Amino acid sequence: EVWMVQSGGGSVQAGGSLRLSCSTHGIEFEEARLAWYRQAPGSECERIALIMYEGEVRMGDSVKGRFTASRDTSENTVELQMNALRPEDTATYYCGADVLGVRYSPSPSGSCRGMSYWGQGVLVTISS
Fold first, then answer.
1. How far apart, in whole angstroms, are the C-alpha atoms of residue 107 and residue 120?
2. Pick from 107, 103, 104: which is nearest to 95 by CA?
3. 79-113-109 Cα angle (round to 5)
4. Are 91 and 110 in contact (CB under 8 A)?
């Protein structure tokens, strides 16, 4: 069985920080690409971080320098550290995994695509 369960999220004022966590089961990280996505109501889904099979981390331009994604292969967890938060960061955030040989599935809500498995999503709200 494969699952991804997220924790974290919440409401923070602009300039603050949040840390999102994604616990997983049944995913071999070195055989998967891991990612963080976000989607605000009325907006398209945006991939903001991608971790490649070997561990290379690629951050999206909109969050580069403020957010950092990481993985722990021994614990099968994925983290997203968010700093210098802005109101435009308000969105539902999802972790995802693209596992070799497993077809894509849409996110449980919103319209995110490109991953085989997803966390349930957590809401992050940044006030001005």
1. 8
2. 107
3. 80
4. no
Calculate what percentage of the chain has a pLDDT beyond 90: 100
Q: Is the dihedral of CA 96, 100, 106, 111 positive or negative?
A: positive
In this prediction, residue 75 carries a pLDDT of 97
Residues 110 and 121: beta-carbon distance below 8 Å? yes
Distance separating alpha carbons of residues 12 and 59, to the nearest angstrom: 22
Which residue is associated with the tokens 């596992």? Answer: 99
Q: Residue 106 corresponds to which tokens in the numbers above?
A: 């849409």
Question: For the purposes of burial, counting CB atoms within 10 Å of the CB of 34, is it exposed (0-12), middle (13-18) or buried (19 or more)?
Answer: buried
CA angle 118, 121, 74 (to 5 degrees): 55
**Closest among 51, 46, 48 to 27, alpha carbons compared:** 51
Distance (Å, rounded) from C-alpha 42 to C-alpha 45? 9
| Average pLDDT value for the chain | 97
| Whole-number Å distance between alpha carbons of 41 and 103 | 26
